[in-house]
Structures are given as C-alpha cells and as structure tokens.
Amino acid sequence: MSKYENLAKLIVQGVGGKENIISLTNCITRLRFKLKDESKADTEKLQDTEGIIKILSAGGQYQVVIGNHVSDVKSAVDEVIGVIPVLEEDNDSPKGNLFDRFVDMISGIFTPILAVLSASGMIKGLGAVLVFALGYQFQSTSTYAVINAIGDGLFMFLPIFIGYTAMKKFKGTPFIGMMIATALVYPGFLDGSATATFGQLDFFGIPFSIPMAGYASTVMPIIASAAFGSYVERWLRKILPDVVKLFLVPFFTALITVPLTFIIIGPVMNMVSSAMGNGFMFLMDISPILFGAVLGFGWQIMVMFGMHWAIIPFAIIQMASGEPTGLLVGSAGASWAQTGAVLAVMLKTKEQKLKELSIPAFISGIFGVTEAAIYGITLPKKKPFWASCIVASIAGAIAMGLGIRAYSMAGLGIFAFTGHIRLDGNITEMVWMMIIATGALIGGFALAWILGFEDGKVNSKLSKEEAKKIAIGKN
To answer: What is the SS3 assignment for 413?
Structure first.
C-alpha cells in the first residue's frame, strides 16, 4: 500500500472521480489534471485537505500543488484511477483563449524532459568548472570528451526527445514522433555531408535545403512536424484495414511527414523561431534593464499561472543551438528574494505553526522550488510576497544591466549558478549571479521584515509531517 494512498483517493474524489478525469500529468510540484467538467471538482474540500498546498485552474488545467514529492503522489493517484479509457467523445484539446492553448501545448511538451534538460546543463557546467580548475589542457583529454558528450548529447539530439513528447501531446504514437525526429538528425543531414555529396538536395525533383547545422538542437520544426504527423496518423487509422494498420500506419506517416518537413515545415518553422527569438532580443536591446525589472517583478506571478512557459522554450532554443541567452536572467533573483521573505516571516512570526511551515519552505526555496513558500507563507501574508517581487525586480534589472547570460540549461536554486559558466571555464558571470542571488536573499528578507505582516492565522493546509517533506521529497 502506497504511503500516499489515502491522499490519492481524496484527490480523485475531489476532482469529480475517475470518470471526470481526461488525463493527468505532473511537473516539479503540481499534479496537472485535464477534467471533463471542472464544476464537478470540489475545490474547497481539496483546499482543506492536508498534504495539498494550493488548487489552481489555469491554461485549461486543474492544478493540485503538492510539493517536491509530487511524483510519488502521482504514482499513488495512478494506482487509484488505473487506466483511463480514451473515448472518441473525450475532448482533450486545450481550453481557453489562444494564449492558454499555447501555454498548455508548450508545458505539455517540455515538462516531461525539463529535469533531464537541467541535468544536462549541470553536466556541461561541471565540464566548464573542471576546465577552470585544471586548466585549458583538460579540454584535450578523453575525460573531458566523455563529460562533454553527456552534457551535449541530449541537446544535439533534442528533436528525438521532443518528437516523443510532442507526438504524445498531439495524441499520436510517440515512437512515430521519434522515428520522424531521427530522420531530421540523421548524420548526413546533421553535418552537411548530404549537401556536399549531392549539391542541390531534392525529393523526387522537389528541391529543399538543410540549415547549416542541420536540425540538431532545434525545437520548432519537430513540434510542427509532430503536430502534422499526428494528424496524418489519425487519418490513416481511419482509412486503412485493421489487418495492416500495425506496420502501414507508421510506414505512411513517416513517408509523408518527413519529406514535407524537409521541404516545407522545417524551413517555415525555423523562420518563425528566428522571428520570435529576434522579437525577444529586440525588446531586450531596447532596454535590458527595464526588461529585467519587469521580468523579475512578474516572474513569480507568471509561474503561479503557468505563463512562464511562454518564454522558457525560446531560452532553451538559444542554448540548445550553442548560443548564450539572457532571456531568463532577469528572473534569476525571484526565487532568492522569495526565500529571503520566507526567512523574515519565519524569524518574525510568533505563531509556532507558521514557524514550522516556514522552515521546509525556506529549505525548498534554496533549491529553487518556491510553491510552498508562495502558497503557504508569503502570498497569504500579502506584504512579504510583494516585497519579494520588488526585490526580484531590482535584482533582474541589475543582472540584465551587467549583461549576464546563461550558457546552459542548469538546475534550479543553487544548482542554477553553473549555467552561467562560459564554455571556456570563465566564471565571472557565475560569480556576479551568486552576488546578485545573495543580495536578493538579503533584500527579500530586509524588505519583508520592514513591511511586516499581519501575524494571524496562516492559510496553509499542510500537516507538520508533510511540511517537513516538501523540501527533501522523502516518502
């Protein structure tokens, strides 16, 4: 019996039962439900359930904020609900406006691979640290080559990973998505040798071209290709006889989708990606300091509603292609300011339970996970939350003003610093980010302490036992 079985049963009952669930995924701290009818969910009851931090409804998703041990709770929920039958009338398309649908699509594609993306970035940072510590000659060793391969491999073959998650998101067969992606990163098309061998490339007389670096590390082409491929697959399943579907569906899906990706989809999506990336860079070029201030102030608010997914993919695109990016630098002080504000509450409050809840929230914040701090501590107290936003805005403006960039997709909190190490081992920007993070932590603490808060009942439903586990994710 799972330790979270009782909690899982209460969650399933609270969202309207198994029959009201279309799908369930999770991110770092939240269960993300797609429900047939959100009005059937008993939000008030769930909000009062011990072990649940917060209930949110955003981007067409019914989100149950749990904490760092969310994957264990999801496993328990999966055991309770079993296999959810997918019916033709079950509409799992995103709800809401176009922005909500975009956020839902992007989060569904990137959330499953975000942890390994961060791990790869940290490994690249480790390689840079070793170059700094051992000297530039370390780059010529096979040890460095192995470390670099571990860190770079995922980014080089990123389309294969996204081919899986995107095809799954678009209700196609994930392995067909991977099959399509492998063609895009096939060695001859990856290193330019195909163009060198054949000159002008064509497919039965229809000309096409491959980008200079091929489609390695790209994002937008495979997402669009998977969307188109999933449509082709569903169409084929309707018209082909059952006896040949097993092998003819992937055969024709790949045979139709891959050439069209090379000829039309890939070039068009590369142009779209470049245009959107240039748009963000244009905004930063107008006033990097203002961009950092706005992003820093609004980052925690964006995370609460899942809106940060509108920016994250473009930072991943830049870093995956080997280019440093400043897109997320302005948000780097937000978690530290929030953590400082929690520390102020923890030391200033006279409520014993609030002190106990603040300790794991503070520890969790050091590692970059602030949901427990936001929903359980600072947001209910109001002033500490806004204090952290103000300090994060100042930190973001300073970071952008200094021209700090990220060179790899590192982890969260203290693990994020390695992402600012240059590939040649230069740690100047990492040191600046450490100074800014320290300043944000102290600033968040000081401003929250000065502004104060009403020392009344805390709006948190976490039990003492669950609160202690948020930071360390123990089962």
So the answer is: helix
The conformation of residue 406, written as its DSSP 8-state character, comes to B
Q: Give the C-alpha separation, 466 to 66, whole Å.
A: 9
Q: What is the pLDDT of residue 328?
A: 87
Beta carbons of 41 and 16 less than 8 angstroms apart: yes
SS3 content of the chain, % helix, strand, coil (to 5): 65, 5, 25
Q: Pairing relation of β-strands 54-58 and 21-26?
A: unpaired
Tell me how crowded residue 423 is: count the other CB atoms within 10 A of its CB. Answer: 16
- Please, which residues have CB within 8 angstroms of residue 1's CB and are 6 or more apart in sequence? none
Interatomic CA distance for residues 366 and 358, integer angstroms: 12
- The two tokens of residue 77 are 């929920």
Beta bridge partners of 203: 206
Residues 35-60 pLDDT 10s: 988 889 999 899 888 888 888 887 67
Tell me the two tokens of residue 104.
């839902």
d(CA 307, CA 99): 9
Tell me how far apart the alpha carbons of residues 57 and 38 are, in angstroms, rounded to a whole number: 9
Tokens read off for 110? 């990137």
3 state SS of 95: coil
Contact of 445 with 344, CB cutoff 8 Å: yes
For 247-298, the pLDDT digits (tens) are 999 999 999 999 999 999 999 988 887 787 777 778 788 899 999 999 999 9
Q: Give the pLDDT confidence of 422-434 residue by residue, as tens digits.
A: 877 788 999 999 9
Query: How far is residue 452 from each of residues 17, 373, 377, 460, measured CA to CA in Å?
Result: 42, 16, 13, 19
Half-sphere exposure of residue 406: CA atoms within 13 angstroms, side-chain side: 30
Which H helix or E strand runs over 208?
strand 206-208
State whether residue 200 is helix, strand or coil.
coil
Q: What is the pLDDT of residues 358-410, one digit of tens each?
A: 888 898 888 887 877 887 789 888 899 999 999 999 999 999 999 999 988 77
3-state SS track over 12-72? HHHCCCHHHEEEEEECCCEEEEEECCHHHCCHHHHHCCCCCCEEEEECCEEEEECCCCHHH
* Residue 278, amino acid: N
C-beta separation of 67 from 60 below 8 A? no
In sign, the C-alpha dihedral spanning 360, 49, 456, 302 is positive
Cβ neighbours for 205, distance < 8 A, ≥ 6 positions apart: none
Q: What is the mean pLDDT of residues 318-323?
A: 75
- Can you tell me the distance from the alpha carbon of 25 to that of 77, in angstroms, rounded to the nearest whole number? 11
